Amino acid sequence: MDNVIEAVKVSKIYDMGEIKVTALNDVSLMIKRGEFVSITGPSGSGKTTLLDILSALSRPSKGEVLINGDPISQMTDSELALVRGKTIGFVFQSFNLIPRLTALENVMLPLWFQGIAPKERIERGEKILSEVGLEERMHHKPNELSGGQRQRVAIARALAVDPDIIVADEPTGNLDSNSGALILSLIDELHQKRGKTILMVTHERYVAERAERIIHIKDGKIEQSEAVKKKTQEIRRNYK
Fold it and tell me: Which is one Gene Ontology cellular component term of this protein (predicted)?
């Protein structure tokens, strides 16, 4: 199947009592398997809402989202959780690590939810943390790590179950430029060398241009879908 994610005439309406707020309005979008797509737009444009719906964190008020061809509207909450757990790895701006757990324990957590045996959890966690350059920090807790290191732990956790899709919401938003460049290089590698489908929200143009395609959203609608030239991608990937 060519399309790993498909949104068909999706709307998201929040009921605020007497006021109804339309965050997304009749949005249709297809993400191909192995594609790197950025979603960008001004604050309040609906880009994070769109990301949440495309990654099954939220259900649309109208329309349909299909993940690997399966419509999420027909899934129970537990079935949706299973899809997220096995198919999608999440990387958030705020890291979302559990403070009392070490880096290794944070990475092993999704494996525990999937019922993976303890020995394999440890082996997988150690391997992934080594791959992101944290072999010397895997037994440290989040407050003992820098922002860039915490985000690398978050990426390692996202990779723990080897998902098809990596969803990143402002992954460099809380990082300095050097740490941000390292995280973006890791995301590039996930796409280029591992063939992961990458779906990333960002408000930074130079970050968005690392993708193959940029979706511009404004006032809850897709304003433009822009292909990124390869030369521009290489320039941005070398940006420090």
Answer: membrane protein complex
